[in-house]
Amino acid sequence: MGRAETPLDPTAGPLPAFAHELRRLRYAAGSPSYRALARKAGYSAAALSAAASGSSFPSLSVTLAYVGACGGPTEEWAERWYELDAKLTAEKTDPGPAASVVRPPRELPPDVYAFAGRAGELAELDRMLDEGDPATVIVAVSGTAGVGKTALAVHWAHRVADRYPDGQLYVDLRGYGPEPPTEPAEVLSGFLRALGVDALDVPYEPAERTALYRSLLAGRSMLVLLDNAASAEAVRPLLPGSRSCLVVVTSRDALPGLVARDGARRLDLSRLPARDALGLLHRLIGTRVEEEPAAAARLVTACARLPLALRVAAELAVARPAVSLADLVTELGDEQSRLERLAAGTDERSAVGTVLSWSYHRLPPPAATLFRRLGLHPGPDLDAAAASALAGLRSDEVRPLLDTLVRAHLVEPVGPAGYGQHDLLRGYAAQRAAREDPPDERDAAVTRLLDHYLASAVAAMDVLVPAQKDTRPRGPWTAPPAVGLDTAAGARAWLDGHRAALAAAIAFAAGHGWPRYAGQLAQTVWWYQDSRGYHTEALVTQRHALAAARDREDRAGEASALHHLGTVLRRWGRYGEAAEHFRRALDLRQAAGDDAAVGQTLAGLGVLFRRQGRLREAMDHYRQALEIHRRVGDRLGTGWALGNLGIVHDQLGRYPEAVEYHRQSLEILREVPEWAGVAVTLGNLGVTYGWLGRYDEAVDHLERALTMLRENGDRTPEADFLHELGLVQLRWHGPERAAPYLDRALAVHRELGNREGEATTLAIVGSLHTRAQRWEEAVRYSRMALGLAREIGDRRIEAWSLNGLGEALCGMGEWAAAARHHRAALGLTDQVEDRCGRARALAGLGRARQVAGDAEGARRYWRQALDVLGDLPVPEAAGLRQRLGEQTSINRHALT
User: What CA–CA distance (Å, rounded) separates 412 from 430?
Assistant: First the structure.
């Protein structure tokens, strides 16, 4: 007997009612345990229990598996599922009073502690805002480093925030740090998500992101703070088009282009007036300023009236309450004299450097050492584990030291568990390290950091893709991996949280004498970057890996980077460049005699040829890969090669053979186990079942694949199977069922920059509109697909799009134009050996002749199409036979 479950209230809504009926079905079956049901259903007990919990909407495949295991009527329950899906979709689309809404973003950093002075500047900013043109108000605050630009901008933004009820957006553009500035496209992605756009719906092209961003801000009253901009070019894509928005930009540059071209009003921020500087010092250290006014004035002068320097100096004064301000100023003067003997600089930088040096020398030695080590970190921010690696200490030893640096204003907390520094502080820390630490100590610290990142990345990927463990580097490591990487969720969270740090580490390692780490890190995180759709990031890291491998004359590393670059370029539809990279990788791997790697690159070329419609060449490369993998005993490679052969047989219209290849692949990949491969093969098997008209099996396999892919965060094949599921639903149930899947697929493909997937989805959407008799929309989407397919050189999708155009034009009565497109498609399908595409073109020509009134010509083309399909058990063949039967009946009727 099954365990007792928490009762459900079937009147609480459609989802609880649905779950309640599922439970009743289980009770009617004798209340078997979920473990017993799982053995019958082929799904886990947890998945079946969750389906009947009422807490979430189960997928169709899980629902039908549950019903079937309980002996219930699956067809009836399929209809119930679709009815519930429609109700829940309607509730999301038409929110009622209780529905959740997207909250306005409130991204401003906290107001500055102890802000003082700047009354004149604040009044000027108010005037700019009140007297601004009807267009968007853009205010640019410029000034030297450490002068308080960000503090002023944040403080003023908080003062006027209530005038912008639709929210505030904030970003640090990192225009002056040692790491590369934040890209506008990356900023736009974050802004769009903050504005309520689903991550999967963020466009891929930067121009499209800007357009969507401006559309969303149109008519809204929002404040946008763009901090630390290096140039006007970094700002322009982030400017709203709405007249009701305020944009505040901070920069060390005067940004003349933003003023001249974009109408920005500039406020040049000078050093604090002496009175304001004394006021800030008073707020930070209290009555000691009144007790020693002369010493306080000298301290202000020594700090060059710069807020950054004043805050660091004040913290030192607070930490030493027994020391008079006069003595502190004397110490600071001695430090300044010493530094001036070493090097001269501008007043501002000398002042900041003096105060930092003074504060630094007061640190306990372990904290000072850690401060210097932080200057060696290549990325923008780091966590305590990375700081531990740099310092060569345990986490429990380094956290108190980080707290000391935070109190001294030499480090600032970032997010829940990170730490960052003003770029002046980072530069100063790096200078101290170069002066005080022997090169071998600095090198050892960097090596520990890179070991920490590599060990952590390896541990994370071992959990996510265990079948590839043997391909990853193994220690011994000079620093341990991060904790919490023993679960898939923990591994993904660590990789997601350290994307920027890993990319920076790879770039640094490649260019500063650690090329082995660059290659190993890039190879280790490749699957994560590719499967998650971080293709731009993968392109950059693999190029660094390629350069590093060539510096070391590491032919295996060079081939690996070339192979991965070929994959990225193929996903972007740059087939010529992809082929060049794959061939260079193949030459290197063949010369090295690395058979398993040769098989991988042969498969990569096979995928490329298949996308170009060169199916015979694709099959030849897949078979060579299969032979190699079998010969060397590579079970994982064998499983993938069999799956690839299944795909090419599917595209040749050899569906029974395709099913057999996919089943063999599935068996091996489950045995390995390689769950990412299992998910992909399940989906590919579902695609084949869809062409065979076995729609229920197709949906089941595709939904199981999507569930697994989402659990693994594998987004690239997820998008492919979304459009395939949309196609199956279009063929089985029609446009309404198909549309949500296709909308989602198109959004993901565009976000990932997967142009081949985008072209395929556009072609299917064109067919959807034809089925719905929305002829103009069908023509529009088919032409979009055709243009993209021709641009990337995908002849199969080009033929599909031409057929789609022909069908839509025929529906509009333009039979002559339709026939031209079908004939063009017919020529292409001959080239790419697309059996079903050829039959579709011939059937389209028959339809065009029918619309033209030529019944005999229509019949002739339909007969040819049926001959092409032969004995294939596909719905299209049955449809053609029915059409020929109808045509015969019409002819007999006419003769009588």
Answer: 17
